[in-house]
Structure formats: structure tokens, C-alpha cells
Amino acid sequence: MNHIDSNSRxxxxxxxxxxxxxxxxxxxxxxxxxxxxxxDTKILGVVENNETTGRPSYSPKVILKLLLYGYSEGERSSxxxxxxxxxxxxxxxxxESLHPDYRTIARFRQKNITVMKELLRKTIELYQNVxxxxxxxxxxxxxxxxxxxxxxxxMTEEKIGKxxxxxxxxxxxxxxxDSREDERHGTDNKNFLDVEKLAILEEQxxxxxxxxxxxxxxxxxxxxxxxxxxxPRYGKHTSYNAQLSVSEAxxxxxxxxxxxxxDNHLLKDRVHGIEANTKVKVEKIVADSGFYETNGVRELMxxxxxxxxxxxNEIKTKRGKQKKYILKDFKYDNERDVxxxxxxxxxGFQRVRDSHxxxxxxxxxxxxxxxxxANKQYxxxxxxxxxxxxxxxxxxxxxxxxxxxxxxxxxxxxEKRKSTIEGVIGVLKFCFRFRRFLLRGIEKVKGEWSLIAxxxxxxxxxxxxxxxxx
Length: 470
Description:
CATH architecture of the largest domain: 2-Layer Sandwich
CATH class of the largest domain: Alpha Beta
Distance between the termini: 39 Å
Number of helices: 16
Low-confidence stretches: 315-322
Shape: globular
CATH topology of the largest domain: Nucleotidyltransferase, domain 5
Radius of gyration: 30 Å
Largest sheet: 6 strands, mixed
């Protein structure tokens, strides 16, 4: 059988190949090259490592191109990026056969990571320049990203207690040895207690105690800003809560990172971040039920916006084959001020309770009614309820009734959210392989998240122009 013959590796060429001809015309690296060449790095605030003496430094645009394309390919290690400048045609084409070493790449990223939010704004301006305008409708979501820190490095009160016991043990053992040596050699021999090491340990314990007060009972010694957060299917790990907002076209409009576990008070930040980047008012903001917080929703709606965030009570969950009852399934009798469950039992008003600045009306069932109920395992539990059911209802029924109409009116947007922003997060995590931050500290982590968001926006442009990579 005949096969296609290959060229010899040692074959000399009279006319060497042109590097530009090796890269396809619709390759995404060309979009990154055009974008970086169009921006002014000085206005952006990029810091250069250009010494007054010695060898000239690389242009900041060279390193920016390298980082943007590397992040979009799921490669962020500075050593691997250096290697790709010798092995990968796209990298060679992008930075014109230059070979910055890994130290140069790492230092540039460390010094300039905080200006990456400005880089994200520039990608949004690029969309506006090609006619992709933001229409005022945005989708918000958050996802947990692993921190660059081991879970074992998390310090708790229990671990601090063990360190204190260790310090006491070292001191006690040293005193025993000293007393024995004093009996043999006199009282001048006091070299058995390592005072310096003990002082360092005691200083660490003191610092850990101060940190743990500020970090709600635990903190990570490698990255003190990171916190334990739940991941679907992976349990709790040291992580950050990465936030995103995208347009209907799937363009990332803003990106931020917080170490707060819950999203329920972050919606206002999403809206303000979008408006700062686009200079366009957010008319409609759509998010999942994790962002729902009554006071925040009401405040945004008072600014003449449509806030489409289903509350937890709007979401029907299932347990086994039968649905789990939620607050919405209880009927309210306005004349007698009681709630009635599915079996006809009543929950009477007990008290008004203030929680996190919000007023709740608490309704409680009779424990005898609940204990013998056949629907008990599927019933709404409320808060801190074991033998009976109790319901916490926000003391603002008029607003809640009005808000239900908003949710019903925008059902299509709620469905569309799943295929827009959740799709973007899927690309970042699976295609760009961004599941763990490389840098440490909340400010650097924010910059890294903005960098990956910028890379995504550039590849989205590539798709709009007919490419097939994203």
C-alpha cells in the first residue's frame, strides 16, 4: 500500500518558510494580536521591568499576548509558557519568535495583575466598536474556584490549642533537662532550652489567635483570604467565590471575586460593575435564587430596574419521587392570620423576629399535629424545627405579591439564563481548564479572574467572526 512520503528532517531549504503562512487565517491567536496591538499599555497602567542599564526588557505587549493566549489554552504555568515559545507555532507567531524566560513572565504577571480589570473593560469596548452593543439585559452567577492553598493549612481553634500544648510540652521538658544538668554540672548551664525557637512558636500562636478572630473561627495560613466553601460533588475546600455577569450575546460584562460563601447580597455589586464597564444602565438583571435577598432586590427595583431573581420559595425541589413542600404550598388565611398546610392543619402566629436587619413573622404548628402526619418527611421544615413546623414569612406581603408578578412575566429570561451564563462558566472550567487560582491573596485573585474573562471575550469575538474554537 502506498503512503504519503514525509520530508527529511535534515532537508535544507533554499527558501525558508514564512511563519505567518503556518498559522491559519482564522486562528484565535490573530484576534489576541490585533487586540493587544490596539491598546496603549501605558494608559492601561502596565508596569515595565525596564532597567536604565543592562539588557533591554521585553515589550509589555509581548507578555500580555503570551498570558492571554496561554490562559485561553488552559496553560498558566510560566515555565510551560516559556517552553511553548520554542515548541508551539501559535505562540511563536504571536510573539514573533521571542523567548522570554519564566522569571520574566512570572514577575510581569505579579506586578500587573491588578490592572487586568482595565484589560477586561478594553475587551468590552472592542465589542462595542464592532457593533455588539449591550442592550441592558444581563445575567449574573457565581462559581466556586479552588484557592492555591492546601486544606490542611487551614488553622482552627483546635489546631491553635494543640500548638499551645506543644509549646508547654517543650518548655516543661526543657526545664526537667535543665534541672538534671544543674545537679551534675552546676547552675551555669542553661543551653538546653532553644529560646529562639520557642519565641517563634509563641509569636505564631499569638498571630494565629488574632487572625482567627477576624476570619470567623478559621483561616488558611498559606492564603489567609481564602475560605472553606462547598463544591458540588467535591465537598468543602479552600476556595474563592468567583462572580460573573454576561450579556444576552454571552459577552462577559464584569468579573469579580469575593471570599463570601453566599451570593445573596452580591447582586447590587454585579449591577454597578456592569454599568462601570459598559457605561449603559442595567434595565434587567437575571440571576438564580442564591442571589435573592429582599432588601437588595427592593432597592434595585426602586431604581427602575427589573430584578428577575426567584426566591428560594419559588423553586420547587424534589426528594425521591415526591416533591418536597415549600412555603408557597401553605395557604394563608388573611382574616384569621394563620397558614394552613396540605392536610388542613393550622399554623398560628407566634411572634415577630428580627434577623439580619429583616423582620419576619413566625407561624408555628402544633407538635401533636406534625408527629402523626403522613407527609412529615416531605414537609417544609422552616428554621430550627424538629418536632413541629414553623414558618418564617417576611413582614412585607404586599411587596412579595408584586414581585411574584415580575417573576411570572420574565419566565423566558429565567430559562435563558441557564444557556448563557452557565454555558460561559462551563467553557471557563472545562475548555480553559480554569478550576484553581494560580495566585494568592484576594486582590491578585481578582486580577487573575479578570484575565481569564478577558481571554474568553477575545475568543468569543473569534467565534463571532466565524472561528470555531469557542
